[in-house]
């Protein structure tokens, strides 16, 4: 264990309604004991849960004296660079020696790690730790999944709780997972378990205000200027239940990344009467990445699956290659069908 990692104490185990989960957590712990070289990966365009779980997993592995690489096809977003372990994040595996285990976090399908994911990123064993509804049953050797978990970080909390001591660095990353995937403990996936886990992490030494201010109140001016441009594309269906936002490549200044658009869709969902918000994000190839956010009545994961995507009941996405007007027409028809 690195001398820079300060151990603070243990985390209390938290009960689960998923009978299979404890056994799978134990299987993951045994796999960690049996192997030495790990690469930790998450989905492309990583959010707070993907970043926090990647860094928490890496630090837990280092605590067990393992050789760890944290890889993602995309760089770490600006508002998560303060997290402990962020210096471990890399976007290249060129020249890396073979890995014993690839730990895939916050997604359960190989396509989600990105088209540019290198072949040498796949180890002899593949483990998935995830809480999304959609998954590839043939992808991994071990699945640690619970769709009732508020975040992937909640599953890693259970792993960490099995060790005698956990560092404050791991705790801060796990708190980041819980806070961001629940929208600051505001979304419908905010559960008693999430609050209990967050409370234990605070007890260990996490400062909630520090985490909140770093992640949510440290905005670059460019983000707010971009938001002004995006909000001008806002449209609401005639029934008032659907809202659309559009992010075009031409709106982005040079060097702007997707992290600057994180959360924009919530402005559309916040409109009174809107049941589902949809955000179209133009890619450099001219296709459109589509994000859905539901207030709870509509299962947007089922909607996304119709267009080749997936996700959660209240948050999902897909990619569609068509003109924006055609995409909005097709999505409106499908959304109205679901709403009715």
CATH class of the largest domain: Alpha Beta
Average the pLDDT over all residues and give the rounded result.
93
Strand order of the largest sheet: 4-3-2-5-6-7
Major sheet size, sense and barrel closure? 6 strands, parallel
- Under CATH, the homologous superfamily of the largest domain reads inorganic pyrophosphatase (n-terminal core)
Number of strands: 14
User: Structural class, from secondary structure content?
Assistant: alpha/beta
As a whole number of angstroms, the C-alpha radius of gyration is 20 Å
Number of helices: 10
Instruction: Give the N-terminus to C-terminus distance in angstroms.
Output: 56 Å
CATH architectural name of the largest domain: Alpha-Beta Complex
Describe the structure.
Strands 4-3-2-5-6-7 form a 6-stranded parallel beta sheet. A 6-stranded mixed beta sheet has the order 9-10-11-12-14-13. Strands 1-8 form a two-stranded antiparallel ribbon. The longest helix has 16 residues, at 48-63. With 340 residues, it is of the alpha/beta class. Helix content is 34%, strand content 19%. The protein starts with 6 loop residues before the first strand and ends with a helix. The chain has helices spanning 21-34, 48-63, 152-160, 168-181, 192-204, 208-216, 221-231, 265-269, 300-306, 324-339; strands spanning 7-9, 37-42, 67-71, 89-90, 101-105, 125-130, 142-145, 166-167, 235-236, 242-247, 276-282, 288-294, 310-311, 315-320. α2 (48-63) packs parallel to α3, α3 (152-160) runs antiparallel to α4 and α4 (168-181) runs antiparallel to α5. The model has no long low-confidence stretch (mean pLDDT 93).
């Amino acid at each position: 264990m690195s001398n820079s990692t300060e151990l603070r104490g243990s985390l209390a185990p938290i009960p689960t309604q998923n009978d299979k989960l404890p056994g799978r957590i134990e299987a993951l712990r045994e796999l960690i004991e049996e192997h030495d070289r790990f690469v930790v990966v998450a989905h492309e365009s990583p959010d707070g849960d993907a970043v926090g779980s990647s860094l928490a997993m890496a630090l837990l592995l280092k605590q067990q004296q393992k050789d760890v690489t944290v890889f993602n096809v995309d760089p770490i977003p600006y508002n998560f660079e303060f997290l402990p372990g962020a210096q471990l994040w890399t976007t290249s595996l060129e020249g890396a020696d073979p890995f014993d285990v690839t730990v895939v976090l916050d997604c359960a399908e190989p396509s989600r790690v990105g088209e540019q994911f290198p072949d040498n990123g796949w180890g002899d064993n593949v483990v998935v730790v995830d809480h999304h509804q959609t998954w590839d049953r043939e992808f991994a050797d071990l699945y640690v999944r619970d769709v009732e978990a508020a975040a992937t970080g909640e599953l890693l909390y259970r792993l960490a709780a099995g060790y005698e001591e956990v560092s404050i660095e791991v705790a801060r990353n796990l708190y980041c997972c819980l806070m961001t995937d629940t929208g600051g403990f505001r979304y419908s996936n905010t559960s008693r378990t999430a609050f209990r886990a967050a409370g234990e992490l605070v007890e260990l030494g996490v400062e909630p205000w520090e985490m909140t201010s770093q992640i949510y109140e440290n905005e670059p001016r460019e983000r707010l200027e971009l938001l002004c441009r995006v909000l001008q594309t806002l449209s609401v269906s005639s029934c008032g239940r659907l809202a659309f936002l559009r992010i075009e490549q031409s709106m982005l200044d040079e060097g702007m990344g997707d992290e600057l658009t994180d959360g924009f869709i919530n402005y559309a969902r916040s409109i009174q009467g809107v049941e589902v918000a949809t955000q179209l994000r133009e890619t450099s190839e001219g296709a459109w990445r589509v994000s859905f956010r539901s207030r709870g009545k509509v299962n947007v994961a089922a909607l996304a699956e119709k267009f080749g995507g997936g996700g959660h009941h209240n948050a999902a996405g897909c990619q569609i290659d068509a003109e924006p007007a055609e995409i909005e027409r097709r999505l409106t028809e499908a959304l109205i069908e679901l709403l009715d």
